[in-house]
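From the methods appendix. Each design record in this collection lists the tokenized structure first, followed by the designed amino acid sequence. Records were kept in a plain field format so they could be parsed without special tools. The example shown here is representative of the layout used throughout.

RECORD:
FOLD TOKENS (370 positions):
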């Protein structure tokens, strides 16, 4: 391998410590500036895939200009000058010396397709990070008029991006990320969340019959473990056909050990004795908060994956898909809670056949009777 100088650090708005993809971009551009005929070997690469704006401008200029004849290019810098002039309006900091430095730092021009794959892979990681951060931002934005709808739209955008990535990168044996992700949050334990859960428990105790149609709400949707356990008490009583009131709920809670943690019986009775509104209304409020919290957790998890440069594109795809699946199950329950039940259609009855009357007497039978 021929000796190459130390990679040239340009002054084109790069970080003090460039990431590995920066050197891949330099090597790719240097290979193509040295041997423009290798442009035909590079597929599915766009200017926006480069982390450095000036590099993207150079790539775009090279793609738009017709490649020179190899013999002419070896003896004349005309094509290099044309590339520089075409890229300068988009990146004024570019200089002829930087183009020559790119050529010098390229280890092997024939490795250009490998450098291009590195550029695409890092762009995929950065774009995934952007989508994940947007999901977290949307799920936690309390100013949105319909945060659930906006959050689900962002989740769909992230899912479609993962589908496109799956078709661009081959699978890898080490498919799961090894990145340690933060533990899911129990939920937003604000005062509003606690009040809504208490109102749900009280209203469900007063109107237990409505719980039969609320299977879309699960104990994990509650922010407080006590409230989740009391919801289990209520659903157990309802589905077993037992009477439901504050006393029977207290009795079921005692069997589940809820009074062993210092909770006084009178406090529990008071907690489930202040009904307001309908259970479905408060149940949807609890589920809505749980969905937004889950979306935020999923986005944080994918963000952690994308911020770890050790993860390959396929690891990012697999890990992110699994994270989104955790949101899909809760999303399905949300749609069940907010969509009206379809009307029951009964098959029309076929018209009843006319009843057969008594047999008509014939002349022969009449003679026989006589």
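DESIGN:
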């Amino acid at each position: 391998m021929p000796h190459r100088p130390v990679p040239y650090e340009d002054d084109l708005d790069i970080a003090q410590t460039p990431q590995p993809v920066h050197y891949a971009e330099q090597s790719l551009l240097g290979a193509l500036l040295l041997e423009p005929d290798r442009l035909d070997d590079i597929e599915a690469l766009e200017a926006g895939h480069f982390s450095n704006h000036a590099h993207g401008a150079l790539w775009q200029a090279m793609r738009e200009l017709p490649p020179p004849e190899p013999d002419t290019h070896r003896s004349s810098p005309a094509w290099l000058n044309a590339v520089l002039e075409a890229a300068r309006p988009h990146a004024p900091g570019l200089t002829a010396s930087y183009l020559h430095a790119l050529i010098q730092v390229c280890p092997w021009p024939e490795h250009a397709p490998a450098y291009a794959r590195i550029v695409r892979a890092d762009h995929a990681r950065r774009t995934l990070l952007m989508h994940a951060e947007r999901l977290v931002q949307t799920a936690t934005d309390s100013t949105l008029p319909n945060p659930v709808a906006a959050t689900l739209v962002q989740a769909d955008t992230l899912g479609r991006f993962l589908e496109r990535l799956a078709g661009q990168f081959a699978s890898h044996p080490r498919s799961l990320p090894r990145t340690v992700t933060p533990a899911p949050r129990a939920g937003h334990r604000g005062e509003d969340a606690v009040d809504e859960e208490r109102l749900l428990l009280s209203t469900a105790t007063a109107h237990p019959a409505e719980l039969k149609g609320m299977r879309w709400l699960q104990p994990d949707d509650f922010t407080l473990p006590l409230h989740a356990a009391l919801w289990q008490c209520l659903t157990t009583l309802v589905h077993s056909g037992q009477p439901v009131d504050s006393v029977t709920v207290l009795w079921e809670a005692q069997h589940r050990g809820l009074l062993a943690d210092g909770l006084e019986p009178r406090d529990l009775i008071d907690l489930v004795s202040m009904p307001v509104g309908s259970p479905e209304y408060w149940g949807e409020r609890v589920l809505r908060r749980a969905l937004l919290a889950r979306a935020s957790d999923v986005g944080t998890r994918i963000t952690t994956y994308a911020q770890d440069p050790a993860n390959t594109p396929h690891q990012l795809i697999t890990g992110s898909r699994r994270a989104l699946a955790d949101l899909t199950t809760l999303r399905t329950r949300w749609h069940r809670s907010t969509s009206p039940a379809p009307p029951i259609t009964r098959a029309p009855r076929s018209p009843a056949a006319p009843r057969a009357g008594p047999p008509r007497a014939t002349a022969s039978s009449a003679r026989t009777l006589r």
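APPENDIX NOTE: Residues 1-11, 355-370 have pLDDT under 50 and may be disordered.
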